[in-house]
Amino acid sequence: MEMVRLTIDGRPVEAPRGTTLRQAALQAGTHTPTLCHHEHLNCAANCRVCVVEVERARTLIPSCATPVQDGMVVRTDTDRVRKARRMVLELLMTEIDTTTAPEIQAYGRYYGADPARYPAVREAAKEREVIIDNPFYVRDYAKCMACMRCVRACGSDIQHTWAIAMTGHGHHISVGAGSPTNDITESPCVFCGNCVGLCPTGALMGIAEYEVRKAGLIGTPELQWSPETGLTGPGTAKEVI
Amino acid sequence: MVTATTCSYCGVGCTLELHTVGNQIYKVTSPPDAPANRGNLCVKGRFGYDYVHSGDRLTQPLIRRGGVPGARRGTPEYGTLEPASWDEALDLVATRLGAIKADHGPDALMGLSSAKCTNEENYLFQKFIRAAIGTHNVDHCARLCHASSVVAVNMALGSAAMSNSIGEIRREIDCILVTGHNTTENHPIVGLEMKAAVARGADLILVDPREIELAEFATYHLKHRSGSDVAVFNAMANVIIAERLYNQQFVDERTEGFAVVAAAVKDCTPEWAEEISGVPADLIRQAARLYAGAKASGIYWGMGITQHHNGTQAALSLCNLALLTGQIGRPGTGLNPVRGQNNVQGAGDMGALPNNLPGYMPATDETALEKWSQAWGVKLSRTKGLTATDGVNAMGEGKLKGLYVMGENPLMTDPNLHHARACFEELEFLAVQDIFLTETAEMADVVLPGAAFAEKEGTYNNTERRVQRVRAAVTPPGAARQDWQILGELSTRLGYPMHYERPADIWREVAGLVPSFKGITWARLEAGPGIQWPCPDDQHPGTRFLHAGTFPRGRGKLHPVVYEPPTENPDDDYPFVLTTGRVLFHWHSGVLSRRAAGLNAIAPEALVEIHPYDAVELGIADAGMVTVTSRRGKVTAKAQVTTRPLPGSIFMTFHYAEAAANLLTIDSLDPLAKIPEFKVCAVKLEPAI
Hints:
Strand content of chain B: 15-25%
Number of strands of chain A: 11
Strand order of the largest sheet of chain A: 2-1-5-3-4
Oligomer: heterodimer
Distance between the termini of chain B: 52 Å
Low-confidence stretches of chain A: none
């Protein structure tokens, strides 16, 4: 296996070629916040909460999508990185309802995200209505951050069913069931719910869980996050390199 | 609360996390490192759990009372099932079983164990039947699904379990041969792995009469006529031998019987097979070359191969392909009868079979009988046991007088149900232990309420031989009890005390006596993911794939197989072929899935798949009602006009009691495996008004 040598936060790191910066950082003991990333899905790199600073790079770099290269000098905790991560989280929290997104909440607390800093952002997404058109799960796109985990899972990454796709643009972007009525029961959906299992924000939720939450029997667990520990709290698992 | 356990539907053995509030499950998830399913689930596993909380659950023992003496079982005069105390119900079962044993001998009794129950419960069940009752008349529903695979693969290799792990499909296989297996509906997670393999570049050869979802992913789809399996696979063997595609070194070193098989398939040319199967000869040639030439080819099959009067022969014809080409014994290569029920592998492993003691020790072998006689402190019977299918006929003939059923529903799943029902009516005594009042329980004298999967502790063995923990997340409703406790109580009442503190103690007994489980300690199962048997010691990691280096019987045996047509073929009176099977949203006799509200909402009624050519000719409209009649029965259901079946063939599921396909099916049996020919019988169709 060909090894690549680089520096992460001042420490020398050696990692097999093909390793991503996120994996290399984790190997060196530093966790990176992620939302659109999932170990069983192909890379989408669309949430940008995992950005890091790489010396001589023009922009901040998504660490989930960038492979290590010889001689790279990577910093994961500079002011610029913290500010960028905070802004990504603030924009998400402004645009969508994050009340059932424990990871966004945990990252937001760590980076001091204050969505009130963007009062003028349109609330188009938050005004969407809850869709219950099938007996298994709820689609609440007011909570959808368009990470496309569900679209990837439904399509080429897991289920190979392709029942859903992204529709619309800008603030109106959303996941759709492909028909003019947007009715999932008229799509090829087989209701495996692998999209529900992978949704990071609770936009997709089993109806039974939706009801139990509405009745106030359970809430969203409060998780903690830091670069040293990663996510901790109820239901979190050890992060996999 | 979150409880990690194993799914109760199919044999994939998905790891489930049951999320509960109080005694209510509200969500199911699966961790990304789940060994069999990588965190992926299907609709049944993720959303089909609510049957556990169904208001139909049995919550107290029932005893039939108020019957008119001499009334026939199954008639209103036979009395009604009424609530009773546990003591009363257990005493009654013990008394009646004891009386039949005293009057007619132990072989007048039989037990049907359950592929839905845990290993521990299956082990106790067969121990109860063998040690407390004293007969080998014990079987379970594998008789109706993979009995012929078990016989065939045992004849060819000496051990019948699936060769490979599910995870090998994604990573290591280059050519997948799937036959008679609607993978994406019946083992959806295995289906995902096959799709992932195809996406990686693997080839898929599908040999199946129906246009199932996998056809879209197949390199070649051999759409053969139902029941012509042996013709197709013999022709593939013919090509492999004629074109010298076989693995000479493997054949020489690891097999026997090459010359006999070469002679047997000499005339089975692809052209000959085309006549019988309807598959173009060239397609058979291409498939044979692809299978033989790939770096790693594996065969996966289901009921389309096994449920025939010659199911054993069909499975042997698949074994021949693997042995000729040496596509076995390496990662990704092998023979894989994909097991249906969550613990059908375990039920067999535990000896819930008339011919096998636990660990597949033959019940005809003196050494084995002696070993278990000693272990259980009782002399075991030397009389051969009955299979489930032979048992039905023995009831009809009055030879079998008492039946104890745990978690099975033969009066939905047996073929030719009118006949099966008539046989059950002859029983002197019928007791059923279940979680719902099934069609079978409705006929019983005593019904004992057991526990559902989410309420019990124990283990299941999945289709890849992985022993996995089952854990209780909620408590059983009302007075329902743990199934192992019920069995212990009964056995004790019959004079053979079986006292266990907990399921772990039962597992310890099994693992102490069956060498292939010896290293699978309860502590290891508690601490980590499941372990694949054989696992001879507690340092052994378990066995990912079988048959590296040698076969359990030594050399793999090639068997000459002769094509025989199905028992009942279409004619002028009954011009269509009926094939039965399942759909994604339901499970077997529907006892569980039809009580899962979402599943039943999506698939509420029986459908008859009819090809448009036939529908037009008969004047049957899509979604119109159609009556299907065979020589044995008649069923009316909704037509679904679709190109999925071949013209001249129709497809029905056996999930729906109100349109029970098994009223139509034929009870002709495979002579070796005693499996019925569910997959082919002749029917006629007419539009229903």
